[in-house]
């Protein structure tokens, strides 16, 4: 199989159920999800396999689920094929958020991105995830989408924030609090 097909040379690309312009909102949405998956792969490459074994396993699952998100976003009409992203996948992210959040100290102020290399990379994932979510919101205004993808991306950005803090904690690096922040978060119960 050849990597190049030449079918996109005229500025269009194939999606599930037809062809669209390469700058279509649908392509922009799943392209941003693909970009997020690349940044996640990079963040994972910074993780020590012993210290972050659980995170590496969970993030590999997220990488597969991001492919599912992209696949669902590439569907022009639901009738073309069943969606892959489910409410159960969103629920699983919430379980991980709670698990990893329990490992970190209480947070009372806004946190600046950074700290360890792993944490910094995960904060990049968080912001790219938020952009992907915005692209999906824009797409959903005019075209049919799987609404679970939007929910998944929303929850995933929260997971990235949480595990960025977990990475700092495991590596003995303090989170950097925003100096001008009032106490805006409640302590864990």
From TrEMBL:
Belongs to the Cob(I)alamin adenosyltransferase family. Pathway: Cofactor biosynthesis; adenosylcobalamin biosynthesis; adenosylcobalamin from cob(II)yrinate a,c-diamide: step 2/7. The keyword Transferase applies. Keywords: ATP-binding, Cobalamin biosynthesis, Nucleotide-binding, Transferase. It comes from the Bacteria. Its EC number is 2.5.1.17. One of its GO terms (molecular function) is corrinoid adenosyltransferase activity. It catalyses: 2 cob(II)alamin + reduced [electron-transfer flavoprotein] + 2 ATP = 2 adenosylcob(III)alamin + 2 triphosphate + oxidized [electron-transfer flavoprotein] + 3 H(+); 2 cob(II)yrinate a,c diamide + reduced [electron-transfer flavoprotein] + 2 ATP = 2 adenosylcob(III)yrinate a,c-diamide + 2 triphosphate + oxidized [electron-transfer flavoprotein] + 3 H(+). Residues 3-167 form the Cobalamin adenosyltransferase-like domain. The keyword Nucleotide-binding applies. This is Corrinoid adenosyltransferase.
